[in-house]
Design goal:
By secondary structure, this protein is α+β, with helices and mostly antiparallel strands.
Length: 282
């Protein structure tokens, strides 16, 4: 998806703001159009278009048809009407749905390899509660769907360390249904996730950028934890960030523009930053 060299003095001492902007711009210009094409092939949406004085319905998979079907009409070799309509059966979607149902038609159980039986049972109960709290089978099916369409899918594990520390040593800390409130699993669509591969080792990440742009009218984008946080911040429940001392506000700001609009979360091994419309807020 994207690869940059680690820098010093940036966000979390890993990603500089210029690098984040560069990553988002490359993702917007190069990666997202390809992902959009894959999604149109899966969904095969139908839209009304105009060709000259005629109107016709075009479908998402039409671009993959041979020229003899969608090219210029030549009455000398084809005496069929110019107004012929191409109908496409979306077998891509039903094949994917069938595979998703086959793979994850029932829950998947995570097993612990701990030697102590009591520890093993406790760990398995915790894992089961956390996974079910994140969606259970629905989460697995969403992962399978996005993986089939885009070729891969990313997961982000969000842990409330303060809450977990408060639960440690208490009776509630042994209850998996209390613990699961401190651990969340979020599916990140490739359209909004940009992994930053470590230079020299593609198996390691130096960071991960999650960007949710401004929602287009009628788009109905899925709202995750970041979207919910943004809504609460905009409604005033989250205090507006105070100006950073020493003129840091100017340095910790993304450039305005398409890639700077919306919410951008930058994750690394040493820190986390959140930008709203280019302004550092967390």
């Amino acid at each position: 998806m994207g690869q940059v060299t680690a820098s010093v003095g940036g966000v979390g001492d890993v990603l500089g703001l210029g690098e984040v902007q560069e990553l988002l711009a490359a993702h917007e210009a190069t990666t997202k159009p390809t992902l959009a094409l894959m999604w149109r092939y899966y969904r095969n949406p139908m839209a009304l278009s105009r060709s000259g004085e005629m109107q016709r319905y075009d479908m998402g998979q039409r671009v993959g048809l041979p020229t003899r079907l969608i090219g210029r009409h030549d009455s000398g070799i084809d005496d069929r009407s110019r107004s012929r309509e191409i109908v496409i059966e979306n077998d891509i979607a039903w094949r994917i749905h069938t595979m998703v149902d086959f793979m994850f038609g029932k829950p998947v159980r995570l097993l612990s390899t701990a030697r102590d039986e009591e520890d093993r049972e406790r760990i398995e109960r915790m894992l089961d509660a956390i996974w079910e709290g994140a969606g259970g089978v629905s989460l697995l099916q969403e992962m399978a769907l996005l993986g089939h369409v885009y070729g891969h899918v990313d997961l982000v594990l969000r842990v409330d360390e303060g809450r977990l520390r408060a639960l440690a040593g208490t009776a509630d800390g042994l209850d998996p249904w209390f613990v699961r409130e401190s651990v969340g699993i979020e599916v990140i669509e490739p359209t909004r996730g940009v992994p930053v591969v470590r230079e020299g080792d593609w198996r390691e990440l130096d960071g991960y950028v999650i960007h949710a742009g401004v929602e287009a009218p009628g788009e109905g984008a899925r709202r995750g934890p970041i979207g919910e946080w943004l809504e609460s911040w905009k409604r005033g429940r989250h205090p507006h960030p105070s100006p950073l001392p020493g003129g840091e506000g100017a340095r910790h700001r993304l450039e305005a523009g398409p890639t700077g609009s919306g919410v951008t979360e930058v994750l690394s091994a040493t820190g986390r930053r959140v930008f709203v419309d280019g302004e550092l807020v967390e």
